[in-house]
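Note to self: user wants both folds in one dump. Writing first protein now.
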Amino acid sequence: KHVLKGEVNMNIVYDKIVGFRTYLIKCEKSNATTEKYIRDVTAFCVWLGEEQLTKEKVLEYKNYIVQNYAK
């Protein structure tokens, strides 16, 4: 099967998100908290796309959230 670069990256991201969920469960976070964190991280990953994760990108995303959702 031919795998595109984005598919490989999304598989890596998916694995990291699953690991994060496992970590939250081990830390005894509530189901609601776990689901909220996973939704937020997933939304950030979708927004980031193929871009490299940098502090500047995190700050850009924070500004995006403030501009679009904190009204």
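First done. Writing the second protein, which came from a different request thread.
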Amino acid sequence: TSVSNAQPQGAESGESSQANTLLQQAEQMYDQMEYDQALALLIQVLQVQGVSGVQKATAFLYMGICFTAVG
């Protein structure tokens, strides 16, 4: 199941579309169990200028799940 479905629609007006794109790509990598690739994308999310708090929280959530899966 998708963790990002818990994110409210239009959660913050300052959301970065670049961060959204990276989060979607990271979610796809996560779904395919490509955790290292997902982590690389999630780190990029955190480096995007204008990334919202919700986007950061989503990235950190996925990072925790990926680190747990990788061991």
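Dump finished. Worth passing along: Helices lie at 17-31, 35-47, 53-70.
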